[in-house]
Write the structure tokens for this entry.
Amino acid sequence: MIWPFNHFKKSRVTPHRTIEAIYGMIVTQARDPLFYRDLGVPDTVDGRFDLLVLHLWLALRRLRAIEAASALSQALFDRFCDDLDDNLREMGVGDLTVPKRMKAFAEAFYGRAAAYDLALDAGEEPLARALCKNILNGEGIENARRLARYAKAVAASLTGQHEAALLAGSWKFPSPTGPDT
């Protein structure tokens, strides 16, 4: 017999449109020209990757605090990996090389995420140094400080969002050049 009240059960699967909406916000924010023009981020493949990682880390960091967000977090990370894989193939990277490059990307993501977690918890200056090293190639500490203020503003903004809004993908990143950056 089919249980007649199944329509009351909440689905544990994150809707595809929610994942696409959140990932789309992350990519759009990471491509904002203000980062490259005003904050000194190199407008290169590596610079764009590093900004994508920064914004993904900020979103995942906030989602980590929500018990019901583990499936969304995993789906969001999987979408990031699929995007990287697709981009590598579009750039002409061969099938045998893609897994090696994906492994390097994963190591870069996890390394940066761990460094950013420690740095954010330690304060603005350690975060600026981590961002300077990873995003600005060790140059431009003043721009790194501005980027650290921005990252802290994003973290605070995400913390202030209601969990339902975060899970539904109905939130926005603050501007990269707010009054404090």
In short: Residues 6-11 have pLDDT under 50 and may be disordered. The radius of gyration is 18 Å.
